[in-house]
Amino acid sequence: MGLQAPLFLTQNDGTLMSAADAEQYPVLTFASGPTNSMRGAAFLTGVADVMVIDIGGTTADVGALVNSFPRPASLAVEIGGVRTNFRMPDVYSFGLGGGSIVNPEPLRIGPQSVGYELTSKALAFGGAVLTASDIGIAAGLATFGEARFLHGLDPAFVRRCVEDMGRMIAESVDRMKVSAAPVRLIVVGGGSFLVPDVLPGISQVMRAPHYQVANAVGAAIAQISGEVDYTITLGTRSRAEALAQARALAVERAITAGAHPDTVQVVDIEEIPLTYLPSNALRMRVKAVGDVDLTD
Questions:
Q1: Among 17, 105, 119, 206, which residue is least crowded by beta carbons within 10 Å?
Q2: Exposure string over 141-172, b if 16+ CB within 10 A, otherwise e
Q3: Does the structure show a pLDDT above 60 at 247?
Q4: Fold observed for domain 1-222
């Protein structure tokens, strides 16, 4: 009989967790979709520290990659209007996608969308609804559908729509930046043709190869992680000793979770001095990742 691989699911930090852990902690899989796309963008371009936007049929998600992994949110995150206190990626979502409905007067693009019915309701497919995809096709940004159905669109109106979508994208990226300096932006997802080549505050727009399937790529290359996040008092120990202990524990947890020992490496270290506590207290967070161990 052949080797049967263990069952893993992608969690929202861009790594894998066992099916048993996912059953016990399903909340850790929330927002794993956008993080898969971000990890896939890093793999397809070879860029480790960059902003990423993933545009689908209804929404767009913007986040930052730090050392090829999604930047975690530092504040409480609301899900469905509920304030939560668990690990989540720092991702901003807004209503722009290939199926976003365009209302001409006053001009408004999204958040309503035809979604999966794009190929039957959009003008470019013989439908009666003006969508962001129709604008993209009319502007020469995409070539699917039937351009002949769009000859009635005013070129000036099309340009105004493209500019408005560019403004929405630039503003969303600006919300996620940590400084005023221009940043590089990788665009992925089926609706990424809506992103202009030049945007304010963005030094370079990078279009990943195989951008349509970046999400699947991110899921396929996901690794096993082990993480340590605790508060310690140094006491008689030195900082270096405490850090070495935390690194070893993170590596051990990654291996226990299913990572191959020869591939595990520490990818993130964060130290936060807690000046409001006595005894030289320090919050230490260490993350290690490795490839899935498929050996028998």
A1: 105
A2: bbebbeeebbeebeeebbeebbebbbebbbeb
A3: yes
A4: Nucleotidyltransferase; domain 5 (3.30.420)
Is residue 285 within a helix (H) or strand (E), and if so which, with residue range? strand 281-290
pLDDT tens string 8-60: 788 888 888 878 888 888 888 888 888 999 999 999 999 989 999 999 999 99
For the chain, where do the domains classified as CATH 3.30.420 start and end?
1-222
Q: Which residue has the higher pLDDT, 242 or 148?
A: 148
Closest Cα partner for 264 from 225, 290, 295? 290
**DSSP H/E element including 233:** strand 224-233
Residue 73 sits at φ, ψ, to 5 deg, of -70, 135
Structure token digits, residue 261: 């020992």
Q: How far is residue 196's CA from residue 162's CA, in Å, rounded to a whole number?
A: 8
